Batch of 2 targets.
Target 1
Amino acid sequence: MTETTERPHVIRDAKGKRPQFYDTDGLDTAMSMIMVLASEISTLRDRLDSAERAAKAQGIDLAAGIEALVLDQEALEEREARRQDFLGRLFYLARKDAQEARDAETEVGFAKVIEEIAEQ
């Protein structure tokens, strides 16, 4: 199930207030993004190590093959889909925070902000 197209797209948003571990605004979101990146890098290293070991066992010079590889349109599209899935997970909390802010916005709140700005 490594391909994006094999996984059903399910929106999994936890309801309610998220715990906050850091006092600085945005730091929890940044840490979440860093953890997603760390997870991706770890998985990537494991897969690359596996590919190198499998190729070496077959007497294949994997590095030279990678350098000479020319991708077709289908491969490029698969990579882009995988990239978009990754970015979706990476920016998940930032998008969720923005959505929650949009949902909380009301005409009354908007009018109050305008009044506060006008008073300054």
Note: Residues 24 and 67 are 44 Å apart (CA to CA).
Target 2
Amino acid sequence: MQLYLPIAEISLNIFMLIGLGGAVGFLSGLFGVGGGFLLTPMLIFSGIPAPVAVASVTSQVVAASTSGALSYWRRGGIDVKLALFLIVPGIWGAFGGVWTFGILRAAGQLDLVISLGYLIFLGSIGSLMLFEAARSIIKHKAGKTIPHKLPGQHSWVHGLPFRVRFKRSNLYVSILPVVVIGASIGFLGSLLGIGGGFILVPALIYILRVPGSVVIGTSLLQVLAIMAATTILHAVNSQTVDILLAFSLMVGSVIGAQFGASAGQHLRGEQLRALLAIIVLAVAIRFAMSLLLNPADPFSMTVLSGGTL
């Protein structure tokens, strides 16, 4: 059954789109990540124009984050004050990302920047994750334990000025790293179509030492707010949000996430991280191939002006 996507200007099988959303939803439930950093590349590889893929995934991330954020809110697992300090600079970062998005699109360089961004971003993150997971697996088989820095311990970040007390997280920390983290997530999310939770959670734990009891809920609230603002900005400025595409992906991701969450209970943490790292690196390699290999159609025609000579 073919579904015409008016913004993407392409017809795709609706069951393929739901299945794609389900696959990413399964991975999201399995690994506990938003999935935007995997869904956007998959849409691009399926033939969806990169601008439409990036903008439409932001709305899907909003839907995926809402139920989780509400669940943590009811359980008191959100540091609202810390979330606000992340959201405000994050929205400014989203403005910057959408502005950059528009400039690159007008210059005809958006597809290249998105491909390079994912190649560098996923390649580096995937390599670090695979190294850390392999190290943990080797240590586990040898019967050794790896010392980790725990939330609550202090680092050089806690010596920076402009400190604010976050009672729910039991922190007294400078707002400077909080602002930088929030703005960076907003910029990357709006430019590349990623929720940013898989970056934000480690940053909150290892840089700010946020306790695990509130880190996931706080991250979900920040991602929800930033992606909602990003969706509106893309819809107003670039008109690249395809509602039919986003809705089809939402249906699949909600179903897939339930199965992924159940499957994730049967694997250890380091095994999950290793599997996720391999998937991330595979996507990065696919982007590298698209940049290095000759395109199937090296020529294209575009109407630059409607005037006559």
Note: Strands lie at 2-5, 10-13, 163-166, 171-174.
